[in-house]
Amino acid sequence: MDRRRFLAAGIELGSGLVAGTLIAAMPALAQTPPNARKEVSMSHAQRGAGRKARVFITGSADGLGHAAAKALLAQGHDVVVHVRSQARLPAVKELVDQGATATIGDLSDLAQIRDLARQVNAIGTMDAVIHNAGVYSGSSVLVVNVVAPYLLTALVQRPKRLIYLSSSMHRGGRASLAGMDWSGRTATGSYSDSKLFVTTLAMAVARRWPNVFSNAVDPGWVPTRMGGPNAPDDLRLGHLTQEWLATSNDPEALTSGGYWYHQQRQKPHPAAADTRFQDQLLAELARATGTTLA
Ligand SMILES: NC(=O)c1ccc[n+]([C@@H]2O[C@H](COP(=O)([O-])OP(=O)(O)OC[C@H]3O[C@@H](n4cnc5c(N)ncnc54)[C@H](OP(=O)(O)O)[C@@H]3O)[C@@H](O)[C@H]2O)c1
Question: pLDDT at position 16, please?
Fold first, then answer.
């Protein structure tokens, strides 16, 4: 299915929800094996988008992650959602009621990130992971926006497709790792720095793992809690590219090392494609976490 048809199908499907198996939101994690869920009927257009996929989306309690989870469920995919704590489970109740499986972990805490990887691996191998969760400010910017995607990439059984949420603001990031506090104890890196680093991570993974499609996405400035109510870009287009990269068999979606905006490749900050900077970043994240990317 080409990009225009995927967009049309996505907009159409995003409005109509499908019935899933009712799963009570319980403290127990990874509550329902995906194959125990009710199959949903798929329209011809949905089938054209590719076979049913299992997609893990971080930060699905709100914003783009929640919207992507809802749209993918509506298209008949298996979705593994994620919230920061048990107290946030109600935010995904509607998704769980439609068949999603919930996982829990605060991405500003290394031990919880590792535990989240264990929960995901207990569910099974994902077809795609969307590293969506992000924060705009505060001391946890580097941990949530960079360290968590790195550790989850290293620890979650390798999927076929990886999608990392970037931002046009990555262009204002500094291509320097000096003085960065990856622990989250002190605020060092800016949001722009973090998005340059995670874009670099996406490119590094694309180079290191040639059998995996690894891409970064700028969703545009869209009206979520982070984007604010007056954000000018289209909310649906803000999550469509991630869904497309995660599930479509469009030849352009089956490519790696891209920086995408609304299903179009763009040129990222040159540092993201700099293999020396990529290797420095991977080495620094391995040092900070004690976990090396295989
Ligand atoms: N919106 C935009 O205009 C825009 C533009 C460029 C890039 N982006 C990127 O797109 C992604 C999604 O942004 P958004 O606009 O959807 O933001 P959002 O509405 O603020 O949602 C962020 C999501 O991440 C979760 N999250 C944040 N910190 C977490 C933590 N420590 N542990 C677990 N989950 C955590 C949030 O959970 P809680 O709800 O529990 O806090 C929420 O589900 C981010 O990576 C962002 O940088 C957004």
Answer: 29
191 is catalytic: yes
Asked if residue 294 is part of any domain, the answer here is: no
7: tokens are 């967009």
Looking at the CA of residue 108, tell me the nearest atom of ligand 1.
Answer: 31
Residue 137: inside a domain: yes
CB 222 near ligand 1, within 6 Å: yes
Single pTM value for the model: 0.89
- Distance from residue 134's CA to the centre of ligand 1 (Å): 4
- pLDDT, tens only, 56-108: 999 999 999 999 999 999 999 999 999 999 999 999 999 999 999 999 999 99
Contact 191, 174 (CB under 8 A): no
In a domain, 178, yes or no: yes
Whether residue 241 contacts residue 262, with contact meaning beta carbons closer than 8 Å, is answered with yes
The full length of the chain comes to 294
Domain of 105, CATH number, reads 3.40.50.720
Q: Can you give the pLDDT at residue 146?
A: 98
pLDDT of residue 4: 52
Rounded Cα distance, 65 and 219, in Å = 11
Q: Which range marks the domain in which residue 278 is found?
A: 3-15+52-288
Distance CA 187, CA 179 (A): 10
pLDDT, position 6: 53
Low-confidence ranges of the chain (pLDDT < 50): 8-48
Helices (H), 20-139: 44-48, 63-74, 93-97, 110-123
Backbone angles phi, psi at 114, to 5 degrees: -65, -40
